[in-house]
Design goal:
There is one protein chain. By secondary structure, this protein is mostly helical. The protein has one domain. The chain is 80% helix and 0% strand. The chain has helices spanning 2-27, 34-55, 63-85, 90-96. The two termini are 30 Å apart.
Length: 97
């Protein structure tokens, strides 16, 4: 029960940081580095990054974000699936046994 709650909380933080960076961009203030968004996405924050990208219309002209964040989201989903399914997956059991 704790893991889904942490996942939702973390993605909410990443989502809000997308909105904050959009505000910084409009005001001409110092921005959040792009690599930080990718690091957060890699650390299971890609859902919040993708959602924030389209809700705030932020970074949607950057092909690295348009392609990279959904790819990280796919990686997050795949990794969580493997983690939760464990050795129940036929492909994984070939390497474990």
């Amino acid at each position: 029960m704790l893991i889904p709650l942490l996942y939702i909380l973390w993605n909410g933080i990443v989502f809000s940081q997308m909105g904050l960076d959009k505000r910084y961009a409009r005001r001409g203030e110092r921005r959040i580095p792009e690599r930080r968004f990718f690091l957060w996405g890699l650390c299971f924050g890609a859902a919040g990054g993708v959602l924030g990208m389209y809700v705030f219309r932020h970074k949607t002209r950057h092909i690295s974000f348009v392609a990279g964040m959904p790819l990280l989201l796919l990686f997050n989903i795949l990794f969580l699936y493997i983690l939760l399914a464990g050795s129940e997956l036929p492909v994984i059991s070939l390497f474990v046994d």
